[in-house]
Amino acid sequence: MRVLLVEDEEHKSVDLTNRLKTHLNAQNLCVAKSVREAVLAVLTKSFDLVVLDMALPTFSGAAREEGGGGVSQAIGGIEVLRALQSTGKSTRIIVVTQYPEISVSGERVKLSQIGKVVSSRYGQQVLGAVLYSFKTPEWETAFDRLLENAKK
Known about the structure:
Elements: E1 2-6, H1 10-24, E2 28-32, H2 35-44, E3 49-52, E4 56-57, H3 62-65, E5 72-73, H4 76-87, E6 92-97, E7 101-104, E8 107-110, H5 111-122, E9 125-131, H6 137-151
Parallel strand pairs: 1-2, 1-3, 3-6, 6-9
Antiparallel strand pairs: 4-5, 7-8
Helix pairs in contact: 1-6, 2-4
């Protein structure tokens, strides 16, 4: 299974990577740490699953460390969805965020409604959204359940 993990925070990335490798045996895992990296990845490759954080910096790496990485975008994940839509690609998406609501086209959407809204607006197969909270079992259980659905 080809998986794109879009996450800029190291501890979240480690948690998600471990779960992806355990539950999906995701050996073909690509990690993007910024909007730019993620957009380039979806424009040039196809993925069976995208695990998408919504709040992302514009750039990553050296440019970010030197203060040139741009601002963190609360809805940076939307740019990734737009890139997927522009290519005509449709993939399965799991949203993982630390926010109980996300802004989509200026509208505040609760996590429980993200799947429906994003699927219809961006033509993607959103399996669900998980509210990430470091070192709590609730997000892990919810994420694992969505990973099981991704196998089908």
